[in-house]
Design a protein that fits this description.
Chain lengths: 588, 88
C-alpha cells in the first residue's frame, strides 16, 4: 500500500476513476468512438468489400425488423404495423439497392454515406408534397435509413477492433461489452458510468479489470498507447515508465499467488467458523460464463438474466431458440439448479419497440412489459418449461410490484403447461416459481407476496435505487446509492423475516452480495444463499470461512440500530479488523 | 408499350398499403412499369419510389407498361387501382 502511495505521488501520467471491476492489466489502448449517425464521408478502398458490407447490413436490418414487425402486429394492429411491412419491402427494393451499389462503385464512397444520401432524396420529395401524411411518411422512412446506417457502422467498428486490447470509450452499452468479448478484450476504461452500471457488472462477471468515470480518457489516451489499468484502486497510467511497469508486474504476480491460494478452497464449503453453511450460487449474464460457474464450484445458477440473449442476438429469440439455450445450460449444470429470470426488458437494458418513456426505470419494464405482451411472455414460459425435463430449472419473475402480477403470471404458466400437455411435450410439472423483491411496494408486502411463490430473491441493485430514489447510472447523484444505508439494511431484514414467516427460502442476487464488505452483515441478516458473479465466488467463500455466524448475528443486530450509512460502514470495517479479514484490494 | 391514365377513387388516396400491393403485383411480371404524376416519373417496382407519390383522391396517374407480359401487367395494375385498391 505504501509503495502505491509513493508511486501515485510521483506520477504525472495518472488518471483517476471509479474502481468498477477488480484486476490489473497492462496493455495497448483501443479508442472505441461511436459516431452515432454521424455519417462517415471518407472514401473506400475495397469497393467489393463495401458492397458486401452493405448487403450484410440489409440482411441484419431485415432480421431485426421482422422481429419488431411480428410483435408490432400483436400490439399495434394491422394499421400501424403496415409501415413495418413497407420498411421490410424497402430493404428489398431493387431500384434503390442497385442505385446504391452503382454509386458505391462509381464514387468509391462509404456505403453509409450513399445510403444516407439516396434515402434522403426520397424523403425530400415527400417533404415537398403538400399533404400532411407525406411528412409523416418521410419520418417513417427516417427509421429505416437510421437502421441500415446503424448496422453499417456497427460492421465498420467490428472490422476495426483488434484482439487483446484495453478498450477506452465514452461509455459502453451491454451490447458493446458482448461484442468486445469476441475480441478477447483485456479491460475497460470509460469516461461515464458508475459502479453499478451494466458495463461494470459485465466486466466483473467476465473477470476483466475496469476503471469507469475517468474524465477526459478518450482525449488523453491515444490508440496504441500502453496503459496500466488498476481496477482495485481506480487508476489508469498512460504510457507508464519502467518503474510503474515493474511495480505493477509485481502486483500481477502477487495477484496470481492470491488466486492460487483461493483455488485451494475449491473443494471446501462456504461455512462460517461455527459451522453454518451459506449456499453460494452464481449470476450468469452471458453463456460464456458457465465454465466459470463450474470451475468455481457454485451450487448452481441463482440468476440467469435472459434479456442478455436479446443483446447477444440483437433480436428477440423465438421459442425454439430459447428452448435450445435453456436446455443446453440446464444440461451443463445438471444436477445443479438453474434459476431463469424471465426477460427484464426496459429500464437501461433493452429498448423495446423504439418507444420512448420519460422515466424508463418507472415505466414499462420487467413483468409489466411481459404481461402487456402475453405472446412474448408465453413463448418464454413454454421454452423454460420445455427445457425443464431434468427438473433442475426454476423460473423467477422480475420487478413485481402488485399481487396481481404474481397471480396472472402463475395463471399464464398454468396455461402454458396445459398447452404443452395437449401437445404431448414433456416438462417438469412441479417447476418452482419465484419472485424478485426489488420494488419497495413488494418489500413492504413481503410476507403476503412470498406466500404466493415458491422462493424469493432480493435484487439489491434496483431495491437500493428505488428506496433511495437515485439513478445508479447518474454519476452526479450516485453518491446516494448507498448499499449500507440503514433503510436498505432494515428493508432487507424485513423481507427476510416476511419470507421466512411465509415458509419460503430467501436469497440475495444483487451486486451487494459481491461486495466482500457486505458479506458478514448479510450472513447475520439470515439470508440462506447468495448469488454472485462467478469470478468473485472464491473470494466470497474465503471471507465467509473467516468469521462465526454468532458474531455476524451480533453485527447485524447492532447495524439495525444505527441511523446512518457512515456509522454502519464504520461498524463493518471494525468487524473486518476484529476478525482479521483482509480484502484483496487492501493486500495489494 | 402500353400507356394508360387512371384516377385514384379512394378517399384515403394512395396510402402505404396499396402502394405496397402495387409494387408486389408489378414484381411478378418481367415488363417495366413506370408511374408519372406531376412531372415525376417513378419506377413502379420500387416501393420507396411509389411511396413518394402523394396521390390523393381524384388525382391522375399516367402509367406505362413495356415488355413481353405488358398486357397482363397493365390489366392487373389498372384493375387494382380502378377497384379502389379492393378497399371500397
Amino acid at each position: 500500500m505504501r509503495g502505491l502511495k509513493t508511486l501515485i505521488e510521483s506520477s504525472d501520467n495518472l488518471a483517476n476513476g471509479i474502481a468498477a471491476a477488480p484486476g490489473i492489466v497492462i496493455g495497448k489502448a483501443y479508442i472505441y468512438k461511436k459516431e452515432i449517425l454521424n455519417i462517415n464521408q471518407s472514401s473506400v478502398e475495397d469497393v467489393e468489400e463495401a458492397i458486401q458490407l452493405f448487403h450484410e447490413s440489409l440482411e441484419k436490418s431485415k432480421k431485426e425488423l421482422l422481429k419488431v414487425f411480428n410483435v408490432a402486429k400483436d400490439q399495434m394492429g394491422e394499421k400501424r404495423s403496415e409501415i413495418f411491412e413497407a420498411q421490410l419491402m424497402i430493404l428489398d427494393d431493387p431500384v434503390l439497392i442497385s442505385t446504391i451499389e452503382r454509386r458505391i462503385r462509381e464514387e468509391k464512397k462509404q456505403p453509409e454515406s450513399v445510403v444516407d444520401d439516396e434515402i434522403s432524396k426520397y424523403q425530400q420529395m415527400m417533404f415537398m408534397a403538400h399533404e400532411s401524411y407525406m411528412r409523416e411518411r418521410a419520418l417513417d422512412i427516417e427509421d429505416i435509413k437510421n437502421r441500415i446506417v446503424k448496422n453499417l457502422q456497427k460492421k465498420r467498428w467490428e472490422s476495426k477492433i483488434s484482439n487483446d486490447v484495453i478498450v477506452v470509450s465514452d461509455s459502453i452499452t451491454p451490447a458493446d461489452t458482448i461484442l468486445f468479448t469476441k475480441f478477447n478484450v483485456k479491460g475497460y476504461v470509460t469516461v461515464y458510468g458508475g459502479l453499478t452500471s451494466h458495463a461494470a457488472i459485465l466486466a466483473r462477471s467476465l473477470d476483466l479489470p475496469a476503471v469507469l468515470g475517468v474524465h477526459g480518457a478518450t482525449e488523453n489516451i491515444k490508440n496504441d498507447d500502453t496503459i496500466i489499468v488498476d481496477g482495485f484502486h481506480g487508476l489508469v497510467f498512460i504510457n507508464p515508465n519502467e518503474k510503474q511497469i515493474e511495480f505493477y508486474q509485481n502486483k500481477i504476480k502477487h495477484l496470481e499467488e492470491i488466486n492460487a491460494s483461493l483455488a485451494e478452497l475449491h473443494d471446501k464449503p462456504a461455512t462460517t467458523t461455527d459451522g453454518k453453511e451459506i449456499e453460494l450460487f452464481a449470476n450468469v449474464d452471458v453463456s460464456g460464463e458457465v465454465h466459470l460457474v463450474i470451475t468455481n464450484r457454485a451450487k448452481g445458477v441463482g440468476l440467469y438474466r435472459t434479456e442478455q440473449i436479446i443483446e447477444e442476438l440483437g433480436e428477440f429469440p423465438d421459442e425454439e431458440q430459447q428452448t435450445k439455450i435453456y436446455a443446453n445450460l440446464a444440461t451443463r449444470l445438471y444436477p445443479q439448479p438453474l434459476t431463469i429470470r424471465v426477460f427484464d426488458i426496459g429500464g437501461d437494458k433493452v429498448k423495446f419497440l423504439d418507444h420512448e418513456e420519460a422515466n424508463p426505470f418507472l415505466g414499462l419494464r420487467g413483468i409489466r412489459l411481459l404481461l402487456a405482451n402475453p405472446k412474448l411472455f408465453k413463448e418464454q414460459i413454454r421454452a423454460i418449461l420445455r427445457a425443464s425435463v431434468n427438473k433442475n430449472i426454476l423460473l423467477m419473475i422480475p420487478m413485481v410490484s402488485t399481487i396481481d402480477e404474481i397471480i396472472v403470471s402463475r395463471q399464464l404458466i398454468e396455461e402454458c403447461k396445459k398447452e404443452l400437455q395437449s401437445a404431448k411435450i414433456q416438462f417438469d410439472k412441479h417447476m418452482q416459481v419465484g419472485m424478485m423483491m426489488e420494488v419497495p411496494s413488494a418489500a413492504v408486502m413481503a410476507q403476503d407476496y412470498a406466500e404466493l411463490v415458491d422462493f424469493v430473491s432480493i435484487g439489491t441493485n434496483d431495491l437500493i435505487q428505488y428506496i433511495m430514489a437515485v439513478d445508479r447510472g447518474n454519476d452526479i447523484v450516485n453518491y446516494l446509492y448507498q448499499e449500507f444505508h440503514p433503510a436498505v439494511i432494515r428493508t432487507i431484514n424485513y423481507i427476510v423475516h416476511g419470507s421466512k414467516r411465509a415458509g419460503k427460502k430467501v436469497s440475495i442476487c444483487g451486486e451487494m452480495a459481491a461486495d466482500t464488505l457486505a458479506i458478514p452483515l448479510l450472513v447475520g441478516l439470515d439470508l440462506d444463499s447468495f448469488s454472485l458473479s462467478p469470478a468473485v465466488l472464491p473470494t466470497a467463500k474465503k471471507v465467509i470461512r473467516s468469521f462465526s455466524y454468532e458474531s455476524a448475528k451480533t453485527l447485524a443486530n447492532e447495524c439495525l440500530q444505527l441511523n446512518s450509512h457512515e456509522k454502519i460502514l464504520k461498524r463493518i470495517e471494525q468487524f473486518f479488523a476484529e476478525n482479521n479479514i483482509k480484502r484483496t484490494r487492501n493486500i495489494l | 408499350m402500353i400507356s394508360e391514365t387512371v384516377k385514384i377513387v379512394n378517399n384515403a388516396g394512395l396510402h402505404t398499403r396499396p402502394a405496397a400491393t402495387i409494387v408486389k403485383i408489378a414484381s411478378k411480371y418481367k415488363s417495366d412499369f413506370f408511374i408519372k404524376k406531376d412531372g415525376l416519373k417513378i419506377n413502379g417496382k420500387s416501393i420507396i419510389g411509389v411511396m413518394t407519390l402523394a396521390a390523393e383522391m381524384g388525382s391522375e396517374l399516367e402509367l406505362t407498361f413495356d415488355g413481353p407480359d405488358e398486357i397482363n401487367l397493365a390489366q392487373d395494375i389498372v384493375g387494382f387501382i380502378q377497384r379502389g385498391f379492393d378497399e371500397l
